[in-house]
């Protein structure tokens, strides 16, 4: 039996002999940097470790078990499990396997992901690094944005990616849980990472600077990121009682814009944020007034043809309304909702699932853009944004001071230096900045 195996840009024919008892495992690489990748997409100087920790948020409303008519006072309560994958700078002599396992979109097929991070590797010592919290979409899991997480760790960040219980591939049970718990999970993980950093028995001790934190969220993770960044919910959102975008009475009250409860949740340790295709504006959960609550620098990333959260009526007005934030909007022209964040579809995903009634690869793929290409571009801009606002590296400004439309850039390099009329996007090689726009506005604009 012959099948095609994808290795980079080449498809190889592989012959399986009947005598072989086990098929070769797929090599799903999440660390590919294409030759047309922009400059800051390249891995950084640090070796990388990765390990899982399991956190429990005690005595939380169990939204997935709420019955019709339940309110915050009557919903069953339980400890909320939150598996967290942490990528971190590893010691120069660290060792470990470079394969991690996760679940496919179907929630039960386990697959291997191959990368550069070493499982349970000894951490680097002698320096503390900014914390980046990563929050997946609905549904998703903590590995959905693994290419970005690992890449950032190589550049001197500790990256903590959350499995949001009730909305992962394997625990999928409640959209309302995403509404109630996304921001709460993010802030709880921040608290727990800070606590472990202070614990001499933790591998995070002396490694992470939780006072300098960024949050990266995709889709519903982006919804939670907006809340954690300071955008409260509208009154209509808090009181909604029908439809998918509703939660049991009382469970969203703490996010009501302008309330004392929401003001009390402000966390000054969060210094910047990145939101890929954030959900909420299109359905009225945020509006121009509530988004004024964001005061930290925010990078928005969207696809111009996003038909899930909307672009002209979703991502773009979210960016425009955050008027008290230094902010930018990177747009992949022609991209849909799977923009920049999801990893390339694992080889095992290229199959039709009769229960879900779609090909599993469609959960990851964009219909116009290559995932690895988008991941590389996202890593470039995320690196520039976080280095500037968390590490105060002013050199990164040049990668963000761009003409709005990449297609309009002119290339004129003389002896390796840009001539006066050179306007090509910094960090992109000739001909590689295509079908992208980048808009930047200061607070007050």
TrEMBL record:
<feature type="domain" description="PET hydrolase/cutinase-like">
    <location>
        <begin position="124"/>
        <end position="230"/>
    </location>
</feature>
<keyword id="KW-0442">Lipid degradation</keyword>
<dbReference type="GO" id="GO:0016042">
    <property type="term" value="P:lipid catabolic process"/>
</dbReference>
<dbReference type="InterPro" id="IPR029058">
    <property type="entry name" value="AB_hydrolase_fold"/>
</dbReference>
<keyword id="KW-0378">Hydrolase</keyword>
<dbReference type="Pfam" id="PF12740">
    <property type="entry name" value="PETase"/>
</dbReference>
<dbReference type="InterPro" id="IPR041127">
    <property type="entry name" value="PET_hydrolase/cutinase-like"/>
</dbReference>
<dbReference type="GO" id="GO:0003847">
    <property type="term" value="F:1-alkyl-2-acetylglycerophosphocholine esterase activity"/>
</dbReference>
<keyword id="KW-0443">Lipid metabolism</keyword>
<protein>
    <submittedName>
        <fullName>Dienelactone hydrolase</fullName>
    </submittedName>
</protein>
